[in-house]
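Practice problem 4.
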């Protein structure tokens, strides 16, 4: 029986048109499944279902999720995490269930932290990301704080200036002078959570194509239960960004908030609310 599957262009490119058509026809796709995001049962014969391809260094695993939890996409993980995903996906269904594992032989490295746009070799900047809860108007909101490891030059620029915030403002992030209200939603961007971990911050693809990673974790980051609960409640994550040297690595959330407030007061902070992808 045909399945109500979403197979993204990226997934199709990895598994091939022939395999994608077999999935859509129901040949290799299960009817019932456990959503790889929220862990509750789903039925690809009755509800829209996303195909999610996890790719490690040498192997790959195809999983399924409610379309409302995750879009169909390719998620790069380490080989160790991939084996953990296999154990998790097959825990209830039993190893070897058709469509849940396989596609061995895919090459590729685990996701690296995204190089900040415009950073020049050899000292290429990467984006450091810290998660924490931020109190706004008496309510806790899940937040990610992004700070590069070096100044960010505009692509093609020959000077030594830092264009990190202007580049983000051009993408729709808003300058913040204080953190008193929730920033506006930036549509087209999203925060990807899968299997309870932070995988990536996604931005719109070129020419309206599939979303691409603006930042991707080298190893998916574990978030606290409180952070995940707040993210599920609000269905969005606040992203704050500041130039190198503005925030630093803060060991506690109260110190992180103090650093954010200082950066905002100094005109060195931008922010936006990004829709949540996954749970």
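Answer key:
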């Amino acid at each position: 029986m045909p399945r109500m599957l979403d197979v993204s262009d990226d997934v199709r490119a990895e598994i091939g048109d022939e395999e994608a058509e077999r999935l859509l026809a129901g040949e290799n796709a299960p009817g019932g499944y456990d959503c790889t995001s929220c862990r509750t049962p789903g039925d690809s014969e009755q509800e829209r279902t996303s195909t999610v391809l996890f790719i490690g260094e040498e192997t790959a695993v195809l999983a399924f999720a409610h379309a409302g939890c995750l879009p169909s996409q390719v998620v790069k993980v380490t080989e160790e995490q991939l084996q953990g995903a296999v154990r998790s996906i097959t825990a209830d269904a039993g190893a070897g269930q058709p469509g849940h594992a396989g596609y061995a032989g895919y090459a590729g490295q685990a996701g690296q932290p995204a190089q900040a746009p415009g950073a020049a070799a050899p000292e290429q900047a990467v984006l450091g990301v810290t998660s924490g809860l931020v109190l706004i108007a008496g309510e806790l909101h899940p937040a990610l704080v992004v700070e590069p490891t070096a100044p960010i030059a505009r692509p093609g620029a020959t000077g030594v200036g830092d264009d990190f915030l202007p580049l983000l403002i051009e993408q729709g992030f808003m300058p913040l002078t204080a953190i008193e209200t929730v920033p506006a939603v930036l549509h087209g961007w999203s925060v990807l959570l899968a299997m309870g971990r932070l995988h990536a911050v996604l931005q719109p693809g070129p020419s309206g194509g599939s979303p691409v990673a603006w930042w991707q974790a080298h190893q998916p980051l574990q978030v606290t239960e409180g952070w995940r609960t707040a993210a599920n409640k609000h269905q969005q994550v606040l992203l704050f960004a500041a130039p190198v040297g503005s925030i630093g690595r803060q060991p506690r959330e109260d110190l992180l908030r103090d650093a954010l407030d200082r950066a905002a007061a100094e005109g060195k902070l931008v922010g936006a609310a990004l829709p949540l992808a996954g749970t």
